[in-house]
Amino acid sequence: MKNIINIVFILLFFSSTNAQDTTFNKLIHSYPGTLGITSILKFQDHYYCLIINVDTPNLQTEPYGILKLDNTFTIVDSNRIDIGHPVIQLPLRGFDVNPSDSSFIFAGSIHYYIGSQIIERGYIAKFDKNLDTLWTKEIAHPDTSYADTCQTPWLVLNDVKVTPTGKYLIAGNYNHQCGWDRDRAFLILMNANGTIIWQKFFNPVFQPEIRGVELDNSDSGFYCVFRFNSHHHLYKLDKHGNIEWSVPYNQKPYVAQYYGIKANEDIIIATSVYRVSLQESIWRLRVACINKQTQTVVWAKDFHNNIVSSIFLRGETKIIEFTKSGNIAIGMTGYTINVGNRPRLLMLSPNGDSLWCRYYSYEIDKPDIMAMEFHDMVLCDDGGFLLGGTLYDPELDPIFMKAWLIKTDSNGIAPGAYTISVEEHTILIKREPPVLYPVPATDLLNIRFQEFLTEMLFIEVFNLSGQRVLHEQIPSFDTEYRINIHDLPAGTYVIRLSTGHELLYNGKFVKR
Q1: Which pLDDT value is given to residue 270?
Q2: Which pLDDT value is given to residue 362?
Q3: How many CB atoms are located within 10 Å of the residue 142 CB?
Q4: Which residues neighbour 501 within 8 Å (Cβ) at sequence distance 6 or greater?
Q5: How far apart are CA 199 and CA 155, in angstroms?
Q6: What is the dihedral of CA 42, 408, 318, 379, to 10 degrees?
Q7: Rounded distance, CA 464 to CA 480, Å?
């Protein structure tokens, strides 16, 4: 039996008046409870969002669930699962789909509160295409020599991938001698019924965090990243979990645990976080391209002040997607001065050059929002992105967090989008010129801004003789404005946008 989730979508920014525009910014309310979208999948014509507790302490029970959205991003189905304990999933890729039978697999962990102690066990659940639960499985401790005697298991499952043969490859970390730290990484391969085929425990010389795996369909192997000798290395493993080769791609002195990887044909894109010195508080993002055939780093580039550790979660998320043109999109939580944590989308060319970077806010960039954090994203059919995550705003709810969804166009534009550029190692917010359409215009001319306006603007339209033929005001905070040019004769016109004391834009348009 399926429990329907009582969820309300609130559209806080209205999308463009252009009927073809599907960008939006939505806040998801569900009361009571701490809420976050930790994973997003696109399968066939639908989107699936994992809604889950985002690691808030001292909640004795917290359900999780799945939302199913159609291609207009309307909720068409959902399932709410309450097992009597908080279910935790790190915002990585612990949610995947098997295209052969349209089933879904989830890998996370369960918190058990035993007096003053907290223990954690691995938790795996499989759902059919109707989102009904097929089976669940708990893993108390992966090491059989300790599984029966360990009184304080600490185990978290970070990622799950469905292999081409329909098996489940699961990555996680655990306390291998039942200590008080997750000090060892491991992999599990399961069949479709949840039976373990093999387990692989990695040498403790590696830093324990295994934050995700990528499949290599050419030989049934896979890729992961370990921090070895304080540096990040990309590792290639065979189908049994044995290491075949490795490539160091971040050898900075102070490398953090957090990273992201994505495979695409002959290359792997790997991200990493580091600091120049222990005295420097600013984290920096390294993005590297590694050739799978030559096992060499093709390029590696750094982006300063573009990453922070999450406030709510156990580690920063970096999700990588390849666009149809081969560009590289990286989603993450970034820190902006005087604003705080915000979801951020960085677009790179195939050579690693920065094309654009934007951050997003759900209500005109309220400075008093404690944090709005990124968890996952997918590439949509129209070339845009669907992003999701968690927000805390004490004005909305002083106790619980909320979930949000943002749909952008292919240029990362959405309501609540702010443009950022990387110039001389500094993150700057830049005012981009507006977009005028259609070209040529007939009765109406649309003016689309790539960021929210914070002051009243004036529009002036002149003919080529220098006569002013139109004069209007734009209210503050609008991103889309439409002027009526029906009565203007056909021809070319000059349009000016100003604040009254500063000229912001001077361009032309054609009236047909």
Answers
A1: 95
A2: 77
A3: 24
A4: none
A5: 14
A6: 30
A7: 26
Question: What CA–CA distance (Å, rounded) separates 486 from 445?
Answer: 9
CA distance linking residue 108 with residue 123, whole number of Å: 5
What's the mean pLDDT in 321-346? 87
Structure tokens at 1: 């039996």
Instruction: Tell which residue, 425, 426, 408, has the closest CA to residue 417.
Output: 408
DSSP class of 310: -
3-state DSSP assignment of residue 146: helix
φ, ψ at 249 (rounded to 5°): -130, -10
**Alpha carbon 96 to chain centroid, angstroms:** 15
What is the spatial distance between Cα 80 and Cα 51, in angstroms, rounded to a whole number? 9
Above pLDDT 90, what percent of the chain? 36
Cβ–Cβ < 8 Å for 476, 456: yes
**What's the pLDDT tens digit per position in 45-69?**
999 999 876 555 455 667 788 999 9
Residue 316: pLDDT band by 50, 70, 90 thresholds? low
What is the spatial distance between Cα 213 and Cα 169, in angstroms, rounded to a whole number? Answer: 8
Q: Average pLDDT of 238-251?
A: 93
According to DSSP, the β-strands at 103-114 and 87-88 are: antiparallel
The pLDDT tens digits of the residues spanning 406-452 come to 999 998 988 888 887 655 444 444 556 788 888 889 899 988 876 65
pLDDT band at 98 (very low <50, low <70, confident <90, very high): very high
How much of the chain, in percent, has pLDDT values that exceed 70?
Answer: 83
378: Cβ contacts below 8 Å, ≥ 6 apart:
40, 41, 42, 47, 321, 385, 386
Q: Does residue 397 carry a pLDDT above 60?
A: yes
> How is 174-223 classified by DSSP, letter by letter?
E-TTS-SS--EEEEEEE-TTS-EEEEEE--TTS-S-----EEETTTTEEE
Closest CA to 140 of 178, 89, 85: 178
Predicted local distance difference test score (pLDDT) of residue 452: 57
**pLDDT for the residue 308:** 61
- Cα gap 175→49, rounded to integer Å: 30
Least Cα distance to 65 among 104, 13, 97 occurs for: 104
Residues 165 and 247: their CA atoms lie apart, in Å, by: 28
Per the CB < 8 A criterion, the answer to whether 452 and 418 are in contact is: yes
Q: Give the pair of three-digit tokens for residue 67.
A: 């939302």
Inter-residue contact 277 to 335 (CB < 8 Å): no
Q: Is 144 helix (H, G, I), strand (E, B) or coil?
A: helix
Of 183, 186, 118, 176, nearest to 152 by C-alpha is 118
**In angstroms, rounded to a whole number, what is the distance separating the alpha carbons of residues 389 and 291?**
32
Those residues whose C-beta lies under 8 Å from the C-beta of residue 114, and which sit 6 or more positions away, are none
Question: Which of the given ranges, 18-22, 252-256, 310-314, has the highest pLDDT on average?
Answer: 252-256
Q: Identify whether 438 is preceded by a cis peptide bond (ω within 30 of 0).
A: yes
Alpha-carbon dihedral 180, 184, 185, 187, rounded to 10 degrees: -100
Q: How far apart are CA 357 and CA 344, in angstroms?
A: 7
